[in-house]
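name: query_chain
kind: protein
chains: 1
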Amino acid sequence: MFGPHLIIDGSKCNTVKLGDRLLIERILTEYPRAIGMTRIGGPYMFEYQAPDPAYSGVSGLVVIAESHIAIHTFPALDYFTMDIFSCKNFDHEVAIDYIRNALDVKEMDRMLVQRGLSFRGPHHGPLGATDELIAAAEARNQGLGITIGTIPADDPLYPREAIAQAAKMVWPAYGHTPDYGTYQPDAAVVSGGAREGARVLPANAAAAGDAAPAGLAPMQPMQLNPTASTSGVLERLTTMGGAGRVLGKALAQWEAAARAGSPIVLALGPHLIAEGMRDLVADLLHRGHITAVILEGDALLADAYESLGYRHYVRDDDEAAPPVRLPEEWAQAQAQIANLLHAADGAQAGSVVALHLGRALHATAPRPGILTAAAQVGIPVFVTGDAGLAEVGVTSFQASADDANLAHALAGATLIAFGTGCATVSAVAPGACAAIIALGSAPFPGASLSSATDAGLALPLLATGLAQRIPTRARPTPSDAAPTDEPRLMPVG
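structure:
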């Protein structure tokens, strides 16, 4: 199309208004009429929860006969950006004042771009749309200071002498010119990207919550948002109550530990691997989000079983029952695992067994999983509870041999436990960790967060949310992460 394209970037706004989807919708509904345009569609509204909550906000588009008006708000950054594109000239100052008043904007950048210089339409002269633009440029050169186009000289919205006397913004002939408004280009920027002096509130924050007593936070109702990311949904859940609030806070703590470069130990209950979590955890290992793993009960064998290409099954008539293995497949897998773990004499630490098995599987197994990923990147895997290793020939499994290595892995770490039982709780000494998050697990003394939320639901939600916010982070070096004892088990053949 052709004509003026007004670009507005605003800050130092009322951030409660920036996050109010209904208010933004009303603004877009009234905006076309206020600047003499014709609304033909919309507003079409979207509320987006971004993987990084700072970039969450409200977006809206209204289609006008002349073109469109669009806005994107970022309440946590005290910022919005807006486009008004029209194929006819309009009073740019009226458009600017309207949004300034609607959102209480204190600082603003404004640009005007003349588009469609080569457009050829049936109602234009031999030079197409440029006929009007050239005429407007000539008028500007006479000191009129505004795009005139086909607006009559006596139009009451454009009294030319008054415009010159009011020292309104002088629009360029083509291109754009920033207008810094009431602040200087080098204005200080504070935490989060907002400018100094901005009052920054999260999207849809309740203004009444500012007066809440210490220890109380206002609960916000959840709104349906088809465009929300998993990370964004979890962020919004922190403003609610119940188990969802704990999940949102758990993601925030996991993210904070990851950004700080702190060690993160993941503890998994006996059934989670069989329930389908192995590939997800292996991905977290490769992304550097875990520095040690604790597998409880049969989880180690479940991972090896699937690495060999076998599957677990769920019962159609009993969704609550743990997954099962087909007897004939499990018998074959037992023989294969026993062959990989042909045991030497002497008691074996769980981390040694896991490391050896992970290396052997990495060389031979068709479906790499947790053990193979951990062995590949040098992350220790500890075993608690009855691992069932006797079924594959490890008759002298010694859980206590890992005590010193596990204590080293937990020192200063955030322990995130999903579906674990008393065996893992007893293996973690009081005060061994910097923080403990227990979801669907037996209670840990001194846990910073705890919820009975099903671990099979919590783990994929939090892992996905974390990967959206921090795709990868630096992994510890193998020398720092690997167990101190090298494996003494040798594969057969």
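note: The first strand starts at residue 3 and ends at 11.
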